Amino acid sequence: MSTAYPLPTNLSTTTVTNTASLLRIVALGLISAAAIASRLFAVINFESIIHEFDPWFNYRATRVLASQGFYEFWNWFDPTAWYPLGRVVGGTVYPGLMATSGVIYNFLHAFHLPVDIRNICVLLAPGFSALTAWATYMFTKEMKDESAGLLAAAFIGIVPGYISRSVAGSYDNEAIAIFLLMFTFYCWIKALKTGSALFGTLAAVFYFYMVAAWGGYAFITNMIPVHALTLMLMGRFSSRLYVAYCSWYAIGTLSSMQVPFVGFQPVRTSEHMGALGVFGLLQIVAFAQLARSHLSSKQFQNLLTVSVVAMGVVGTFGFIALTYMGWIAPWTGRFYSLWDTGYAKKYIPIIASVSEHQPTAWPSFFMDLQLLIFLFPAGVILCFRELRDEHVFVIIYSVVASYFAGVMVRLMLTLTPVVCVSSAVAFSSLIDTYLDPTQPEGEEESEADSSNGTNTAATPSKKEKAKKPAASTSALNDIVTAATSQSSSKSKSKGIWGLDTRLIVIVNAIGMLSFFVFHCTWVTANAYSSPSVVLASTNPDGSQHIIDDFREAYYWLRQNTPQDAVVMSWWDYGYQIAGMADRPTLVDNNTWNNSKSHIATVGKAMSSSEEVAYPILRKHDVDYVLVIFGGLLGYSGDDINKFLWMVRIAQGVWPDEIQEPNYFTPQGEYRVDDRASSAMKNSLMYKMSYYRFAELFGGNNAMDRVRQQTMPKVGPTLDYLDEAFTSENWIVRIYQVRKEDLLGRDLKSANAFAQGKKKKKSKPVSRRKAIPV
Amino acid sequence: MKWSAFLPLFLLPAAFAATKDKDAVREQLIDLAAKGNGLIKLDSKTFDLLTLPSRDWSASIQFTALDRRRRCAPCKEFDPSWNAVAKAWSTAPKEHRDTHFFGTLDFDEGQTVFQKLGLASAPLVYVYPAAEGPRQLPNGKTAPSKYDFSNGFEAEPLANHLSSHTPIPIPYRAPIDWARWATFISGILSLVLTLRFISPILQSRWTWAAITVLTSLTMTGGFMFTRIRGTPYTGPDGSWIAGGYQNQYGQEVQVVALIYGTLSFAFLMLTVIVPYQSSASRQRMQVYLWSAVIMLIYSVLVTIFRLKNRGYPFKLLL
Predict the structure, then answer these.
(1) pLDDT tens across B2-47, in order?
(2) How many CB pairs under 8 A join A and B?
(3) Are the C-beta atoms of A170 and A53 separated by less than 8 Å?
(4) Which residues of B touch A483 (CB under 8 A)?
(5) pLDDT tens for each residue of A407-450
(6) CATH code, A664
(7) For this UniProt entry, which residues form the secretion signal (chain B) (predicted)?
């Protein structure tokens, strides 16, 4: 026997197994700790605060749930959102996230641990990331072995593509959804492998949880049927598949219909029809299999095949007919825009306007996944080598998810798990090969190598391959043998000679992994841990300077305005105003279907002149208008940069009154300085943003630091609005809408009168001309 | 020509002459439109007729520069759609058709109009609403409105937009793309016919592996970004790499996919091929070779990434 390095011989197999399992538990514990810890940058750098936009609504809803109980939450009608429509929150929300926090809250309080609900919300995502790591471990274990599972868990624990949606404070549906996604997939794979109805039911239960938690459940709804269909097309129909799929589909669909927001969608919309169709197909195929096993006549079998095909065709046409007759709703716009990428921009500008719905450039992939992104194809190839049923799943998942991630930045989140799994398979295969101490010349089998507790499971199969000595020496032959090794694995010896070869590969691998860790830490700390409610900048001396304009302004609203004062802003800030200022808003981030005209109304008010906007504001009882302005500080996410979307959305409803080209200069530039178009200069948004801006510079040229343009010396004037509040760095500006003039004049002339200006009269033209002498 | 006869009349300032002319002008325009297959080829004089201040018809006018010397590629791209929509309008019922006209003004035919309107770019579409009569806009607007090209140069959105200015919607129907259907059907047919010969290829897992890997490589190289945003293959100055983190050119997809592919391949060689080598020295050489390839290409990748993301603090060998 020859080994590359000495192995301890006095160890019993039990010791090895026990040590390996202990090491696995310790490793998983450490991975969980790392996953949680790396998500705490946001809390350490800033504070325990809810991030961004949507989380503020989830937080507000969770507070209602925690303080008033589940039934109150279920029946909660929120009159302050979408003023004056209001919103039936219980029926228009995926309650899984809030329910989870509520359960944790009540659980802790039952033990007299008075944890604040906010801290539960802030720390929910990091906690669930540890569970995701575990679920990914279980999933990858089914693909290869425990060592690949541990690697995959470590990858998903710290990979930025997942951290971006799950830092502490990012209290959004995705925080728990990725765990549910991975665990549902694990249960499905397990059910498929064992043919167990128990695991099929478990998959259905977690599918139900996923449906209750995230709109992205449609991904599972389509992934599992596509997998089942592919297996059938590959001729791999089995009773295991039948049991797994039917138990998942029947229980999962029935339970998913219990979520009020989903309701009858699973039987009425095209997104869910694939699952139903595959369910029907499975019954037909299963029946055919059964009939075949009981029949002998050749002709009858042919007849059977024909009738099965005919039934499939009839079923497909049935679906199409039902869609045309309106019984099944066609693909929804959101879903459709994934396939026809120009669709959203044309027909649903609200969706296209969201930054996370933009397509992904390659640097984002590398930033979010780093070395995993190029290990991922290698892992897919390794899956093709074995091609068991569960590998087919990973392969389909990888193609579908990489397409989706390319179309929309936010779907990077669904790509990340499969990239982690697949690259863990590739990486652990590499490490297995080069840690394996057996050298190819050895005739006898070595003992189980115990140097690495995690790859014990992989070794026995390899040792079988290492039996026969080399026969051919041609390099081409080697490659051919390697490629076909699956079928003829025993014909050729396999292994690595020498220690230096092992060392270089292993050292290289460890180097790459540690680089990955550094990369992830840097990206997490710098790119994904900003709450975006609080901004940070660096002072000249390197210390951190906190810019807290948002909360300053929202608290001003809270303290200085009546409880029922209606605030108008662009929809991005609706949830924050509701959460932090506690005031009714016209529009918010919940862009449900019939809200289009409401959002367009706000867009129209913002993009038309004061005279046109004022009746709109008064009709909607608007008391305050809030705009975000970054020109002083160079904060690029401000309303002037989002302005074109407001124009576009308003144009969709009032094409005669609002036209996008009017907001560009004749040269087609988007300018805010002297050369800005008149529609731009007269728009309410422009006026509110730059009102008194030039005065700040005391006679010098006022500079907009976002657009890098010099503003005119004389800024815009406002007749229908009063400046009410401007935050420290001018990021948030709040204007009060004036009431109608008491004397019945229009506000413009009233204003002119108050300033002591004479009413302009049409000056009679002098008839006599001055005669030059 | 017919219209030259009444032109002096039209130029008369007297109001009664203008109303009388209006009908004459409309007859004139109807004639012209009928001649040009629903589209009036304008010059600066007919332009003035079409946009008569006392018009009780509406008009949509394309400003373009089709002459080769003008080098207006978008004009050429847009022209067929415009003609198709104008032609579709000529099939509308007569009582509606004669209240809206389509015109095309080429830069070389009517430079004065371009100057008068202050137009600096082409193509442009202006819709002139009716200034008088029953089809006058309720808000009394007579100034032309501009068509927004943000939906592209296709005929469909153009027809949709113009339909809101015409008395009845433009009966435009997208022509059936026979060539596309023919390719599609012949593709399916040839697939079915050669199925017997190519079925070993289709049943080979490595065909599918190649398809899968190539798809994911192009996608992760940012192919969809270039498709959706329509970014050019290279920059205007010939550079292949676009500055900025959220931007890229077409060529970057190829380079990045190639880099990812090479790295993947090197990993596969180390894992799958190298252990099956039959001679120790050759195996050692290959291990060193592929390790070096990984190190080197990975460094190149990180360097390119640093070009895109200036703040990235790490680098490898390069």
Answers:
(1) 444 444 444 444 444 455 577 788 788 888 888 877 788 888 888 8
(2) 207
(3) no
(4) 272
(5) 888 889 999 999 999 999 999 999 998 988 888 764 333 333 43
(6) 3.40.50.12610
(7) 1-17
Overall domain count for chain A: 1
Whether residue B139 is found in the same domain as residue B235: no
Do B126 and B27 lie in one domain? The reply is yes
φ/ψ (deg, to 5) at A12? -85, 160
**Nearest chain A residue to B213, by CA:** A377
Domain membership flag for residue A530:
no
Contact by Cβ (8 Å): B114, B58 = no
Q: In chain B, how many domains are there?
A: 2
Domain assignment of residue A419, yes or no = no
Determine the Cα–Cα distance for residues A476 and A515; give it in Å rounded to an integer: 35
| Residue-number span of the structural domain to which A641 is assigned | 549-754
Chain-chain contact of B277 with A385 (C-beta, under 8 angstroms): no
Q: Of B163, B162, B130, whose CA–CA distance to B148 is shortest? A: B162
| Rounded CA separation A200/A197 (Å) | 5
Q: What is the pLDDT of residue A335?
A: 66
Residue A331 has pLDDT above 70, yes or no: no
Q: What is the CATH number of the domain that holds B109?
A: 3.40.30.10
> Which residue type, as a one-letter code, is found at position A684?
L
Contact A378 B120 (CB under 8 A): no
* Residues contacting A263, CB < 8 A, separation 6+: A257
Closest CA in chain B for residue A363: B245
- What share of chain A in percent tops pLDDT 70? 87
Nearest to A361 among B120, B164, B222 (CB): B222
Residue B126 maps to a domain: yes
Contacts of B44 (CB under 8 A, 6+ apart): B109, B110, B111, B112, B113
Higher pLDDT, A668 or A446: A668
- Statement to judge: residues B233 and B124 lie in one domain: no
* A528: pLDDT strictly greater than 90: no
**Listed residue (A141, A155, A148, A238) closest to A183, CA to CA:** A141
pLDDT digits (tens, 9 = 90+) for A41-76: 888 888 888 988 889 999 999 999 989 988 888 888
Task: Give the lowest-confidence range in A269-273, A559-563, A739-743, B305-309.
Answer: A739-743
Q: Which of B278, B288, B309 sits opposite A470 (nearest CB)?
A: B278
Q: Identify whether residues B155 and B225 lie together within a single domain.
A: no
- Environment class of residue A507 by beta-carbon count within 10 Å: exposed (0-12), middle (13-18) or buried (19+)? exposed
Which chain B residues contact residue A472 at CB under 8 A? 278
Residue-wise pLDDT for B216-270, tens only, equals: 999 999 898 888 888 888 888 878 888 778 888 888 899 999 999 999 999 999 9
| pLDDT, tens digit (0-9, with 9 covering 90-100), for A262-290 | 888 888 888 888 899 899 889 988 888 88
Range of the domain at B108: 3-163
Hey, what are B277's tokens?
A: 């080598």
Q: Supply φ then ψ for residue A229, to 5 degrees.
A: -65, -45
| B111 confidence band (pLDDT: 50, 70, 90) | confident
**Residue B123: is the preceding peptide bond cis (ω within 30°)?**
yes
Test B288 with A504 for CB contact under 8 angstroms.
Answer: yes
Q: What is the distance between the alpha carbons of residues A141 and A753, in angstroms, rounded to a whole number?
A: 79
Interface predicted TM-score (ipTM) of this complex, two decimals = 0.82
Largest CA distance in chain A: 125
